[in-house]
Amino acid sequence: MLDKVSVQRKSVPTYCYNCVAGPDLMCVTVEDGVAVSVSPNHAGVGIHPADGRPCVKAYGLVQKTYNPNRVLTPMKRTNPKKGRHEDPGFVAISWDEALDMVAAKLRSLREAGLLNAQGMPRLAATFGHGGTPANYMGTLPALLAAWGPIDFSFGSGQGVKCVHSEHLYGEYWHRAFTVCADTVHTNFIVSFGTNVEVSGGPCAVRRHADARVRGIKRVQVEPHLSPTGACSAQWVPIRPKTDPAFMFAMLNVMLHEAPRAALDLDFLRSRTASPYLVGPDGYYLRDPDTAKPLIWDTLSGGPVPFDHASAVPALEGSFTVTRAISQLPDGETATHDSAPARPSFAVLVDAMAPYTPDWAAQVCDVPAATIRGVALEYLENACVGQTIEVDGKTLPFRPVAVTLGKTVNNGWGAYECCWARTVLATLVGALEVPGGTLGTTVRLNRPFENRLKSVKPGVDGFMNAQMNSTTKGKWADKPKGRNAHTTLIPIVGDSSWAQALGPTHLAWMFLKEAPGEWEAPEPPDVWIAYRTNPAVSFWDTSQLTDNMAKMPFVVAFAYTMDETNHMADVLLPEATDLESTQLIRAGGTKFVEQHWAHHGFVLRQPAVEPMGESRDFTWITTELARRTGLLEGYNKAINRGAALVPLKGEGFDFSLAEDQAHGVDEIWDAVCKAATASLTGGSEVKDLDWMKENGFFVVPFTRDDWYLHPTMVEQNLRYELPYQERLMRVGEELGRRLHEAGIYWWDEQLEEYQGIPHWHDVPGRWVKAVEKAGADPADFPFWGITTKTMPYTTGNNAGIPLMNEVAGNLRGHGSVIINASSARKLGIQDGDRVEVSSVVGSTRGKAALVQGCRPDTIVIPGQFQHWKTPFAKDLAFPSLNAISQMSLDLTDATGSGADVVRVAVRKLDVGEEP
Ligand SMILES: Nc1nc2c(c(=O)[nH]1)N[C@H]1C(S)=C(S)[C@@H](COP(=O)(O)OP(=O)(O)OC[C@H]3O[C@@H](n4cnc5c(=O)[nH]c(N)nc54)[C@H](O)[C@@H]3O)O[C@H]1N2
Ligand SMILES: Nc1nc2c(c(=O)[nH]1)N[C@H]1C(S)=C(S)[C@@H](COP(=O)(O)OP(=O)(O)OC[C@H]3O[C@@H](n4cnc5c(=O)[nH]c(N)nc54)[C@H](O)[C@@H]3O)O[C@H]1N2
Ligand code: SF4
Ligand SMILES: [Mo]
Q: Name one GO molecular function term (predicted).
């Protein structure tokens, strides 16, 4: 008989936040100090919307930890020449040498001045994938705060390739950095390319499964049949980038075919700008004394200010206003006598008149009856007039929602889609109420932890908006960063996240060549990169890689070698997911479908000892702060709340001494105590040990806080829809400023600023881009698009073999997905190696023949074509990013672009590939 070997086994609660659908709870099973598996954290049952379960990606974290290809010592470059084909000649160095080298460099920057001669920050930093790195970077934000100006201009596709227009307009209209359906209550969802069963994490997957049991109907409108399409009630294979036409036609049906009484007229009158009178110059007619927008009161038969208490405003009709003013750009005022006036709603009705389902059918390649059917079903399910009780509060019940996926949400056409999506909700009062279309979180408007608190009364009865000024003298004629967000993008504002949400590809492009009348910015003296891989994630990756080689000094936190840290001067290996400590917020409302009935904090803790020489991020940061001479400022920033919450509040003070370096546990112990104290008004103080034992600390979060509606009613505010008077003015001003500065290369983008959007040939822009590149569009007959894939979180875990193994079960993994009959016409069989080319270049992979894809569209899932990342580089997978264009012409007014490109497909001959 064998001796019983006693194994020390423990289960360590922690979190996964590897994609924006997190944070999700999980436990790590550790045997004799070795992480052996990941499991749900059952303590989360009834608290976490997925009852404590993480998704498949979290199960890869064990392999991530023990990946033999990890960078496990600091390293420095020995070959000064940078480029894809230059061997960096990395050699291992001690932490002392690495930290001293970085600190010396940073000190030299401070001595030279934080801004360079062009007024640009000498230090730049990029953190990838939708802000998720912030949940792994410990106290780094405190060091960044202590530093001063930093350029966050250089993106990786997060932001401009993400749900970008939604981020900006969504937040502007209803504090919706991202948007979701209120899946818990809704009955009917129209999803335009929201791949929520793949991208929404366990919370969304669980919710949609429960909703299907309840009998919900989801219509998935997208060019190829994604897993989400496959488990929807209906799939509508729309032509790429024609979604605005589909939605305009839905509006047309609702406004021109359905009876008015089917709409939520009360909501339109009292909670939107629908009654505001539009004058002859397209601007609101305003009261001459107060400058308040006027509405037409049907009771008194005359114009009154919008906030007149007892008015019953007209939504339709044509009126004459005896005397009014309008506010033109640049503070100019026009006076109107006997002005013709129409309510915004009437202007909307007229504007949507041409967009009939028959018209849209031609544009979208979808039968008119399908479009009409979806619109009518939406209307039928809207339950206008009904209410529901949530946490003891009676709220409107409108169980219909419209959601938009990332390629619908960015690039040309995205503005129209976001606008139409929000107007569809307002027409039936389904915005921000149970069952309807909801915002999830805020990132541009503070405070980030509760979006409801970010709502304050602004101008004209709407909520406040934080925009970059476009008026003379106040407009930022000199950009403050290399993507010029304050100069070009008024609506992005200038809060801490704004720059990373600017037109981040321009920063890369301008390193090579700036357009006329624009001073080409010098690269930053130092660029810090963490958990981001623009060399794989962005567009036209080969050109981007060349531009990246121009960065003179790159500090990269490194997990394995990858295509971006290939350009680094110093590699810093931080302890990763299962090896390090951080406390973050959980619950309340967050991205995607992270709506909880609780909120609080969750701890990431070392389940195992860090591998090799890798060190906790907080330790690395503290050392950098100390060696750069910024310790005091860094500690002050932590005390102020840069690590999570202020360490001092009412009834508690866990502030750290500012003149000394603190240990990792000491810092997080103080943060744990302050966080729990602040959440409970000081009544419960949980220290680091308690959090390690219990994993998370939450208190109830009232579910009516999922909805903005009560806040809007409380503050008597209106949604700034359907008419965009303010944006019109801003656009006009921006145009004047740019033209005064001799800048005409942003003129097409200026066209996006309209009172009511209209259709323009959105997909045609990608065709024109082919012509502009000097090629014949007929040679590129297919649409190339991309999609997320369940086991991968962008390119973050591309080097983990388990993910590839699991993904092998998915249709089209690592392949070019193509419609079977289109493929056969090209002589392509399933599994054949094919080449997909565009005006930018080509990419190769095997063909996956499917029925569920439009004949004119190919799909390349995920982001691959690595040439450095171990394991991933041997997969020989294709990537849309190698062939998509990075161009000003394909940039919309928010500064975003789409993962869309015109392509050709051909079968590779035998012998063409090794
Ligand atoms: N084709 C295609 N391209 C896309 C998209 C798409 O769907 N298809 N999506 C776009 C979107 S929406 C986004 S948000 C962007 C995201 O793109 P990026 O911001 O570039 O993010 P990731 O691809 O996740 O890159 C993560 C990098 O961090 C490294 N890494 C992983 N774990 C660790 C760690 O613990 N420590 C350190 N130091 N490094 C680590 C990985 O090796 C990888 O190089 O991609 C965009 N690009
Ligand atoms: N598993 C996983 N989840 C993730 C991520 C991840 O990398 N992996 N990334 C996270 C991030 S950063 C983001 S931004 C979100 C994105 O989340 P989603 O937007 O839900 O993700 P995608 O899979 O990129 O959605 C693409 C879908 O849009 C369709 N599509 C493409 N072009 C068009 C078009 O022109 N019109 C229409 N109607 N549909 C179109 C495609 O068919 C595809 O099904 O996912 C997040 N969640
Ligand atoms: S959905 Fe995202 S955050 Fe949640 S467990 Fe999966 S990878 Fe982690
Ligand atoms: Mo994203």
A: 4 iron, 4 sulfur cluster binding
Q: Give the whole-angstrom CA distance, residue 281 versus residue 295.
A: 16
Asked if residues 616 and 574 have their Cβ atoms less than 8 Å apart, the reply is yes
Is pLDDT above 70 for 169?
A: yes
- What is the β-pairing status of strands 333-343 and 319-327? antiparallel
The answer to whether the beta carbons of residues 803 and 791 sit under 8 Å apart is yes
Q: In sequence order, what DSSP letters do the residues of 778-801 get, joined into one string?
A: GG--EEEEEE--TT--TTTTTT-H
554 bridge partner residues: 527
Report the separation in Å between the CA atom of 199 and the middle of ligand 2, taken as the mean of its atom positions.
7
224 pocket-lining for ligand 2 (C-beta < 6 Å): yes
> Which part of the chain has CATH 3.40.228.10?
164-444+711-733
CB 258 within 8 A of CB 379: yes
Pairing of strands 91-92, 437-439: unpaired
CA-proximal residue: ligand 1, atom 47 (nearest): 537
Predicted TM-score of the model (pTM) = 0.97
pLDDT of 458: 97
Cα(407) to ligand 2 centroid in Å equals 7
Q: Which residue has the tokens 């423990």?
A: 10
14-49: buried (b, 16+ CB within 10 Å) or exposed (e) per residue?
A: bbbbbbbbbbbbbbbbbeeeebeebebbebbeebbb
What mean pLDDT is predicted for residues 573-594?
A: 96
Nearest ligand atom owner, CA of 592: 2
CATH superfamily of 164-444+711-733: Dimethylsulfoxide Reductase, domain 2 (3.40.228.10)
For residue 259, give the nearest of 382, 132, 430 by alpha carbon.
Answer: 382
611's CB contacts (< 8 A; 6+ apart) are 65, 66, 70, 72, 575, 579
Where does the chain hold its CATH 2.40.40.20 domain(s)? Answer: 762-907
DSSP 852: S
Euclidean distance between CA atoms 374 and 250, whole angstroms: 8
Strands (E), 760-841: 782-787, 815-819, 833-837
Q: Thinking of the domain 762-907, which architecture would CATH place it in?
A: Beta Barrel (2.40)
914 pLDDT above the threshold of 80: no
Mean pLDDT of 670-687: 97
**What are phi and psi for residue 370, nearest 5 degrees?**
-65, -45
CA of 531 to the centre of ligand 1 (A): 7
Only one residue has tokens 């730049």, namely: 124
Classified as helix, coil or strand, 221 is: strand
650 burial (CB, 10 Å; 0-12 / 13-18 / 19+) is: exposed
DSSP letter assigned to residue 72: -
Task: Give ranges for CATH 3.40.50.740 in the chain.
Answer: 75-163+466-572
Atom of ligand 1 nearest to the CA of 406: 12
Helix (H, G, I), strand (E, B) or coil at 442: coil
Residue 560 has pLDDT above 80, yes or no: yes
In order of 99, 607, 662, 667, 833, the CA distances from 581 in angstroms are 20, 10, 14, 10, 45
Query: Positive or negative, the Cα torsion across 557, 559, 564, 569?
Result: positive
Which ligand is located closest to the Cα atom of residue 796? Answer: 1
Nearest to 417 by CA among 241, 238, 607: 241
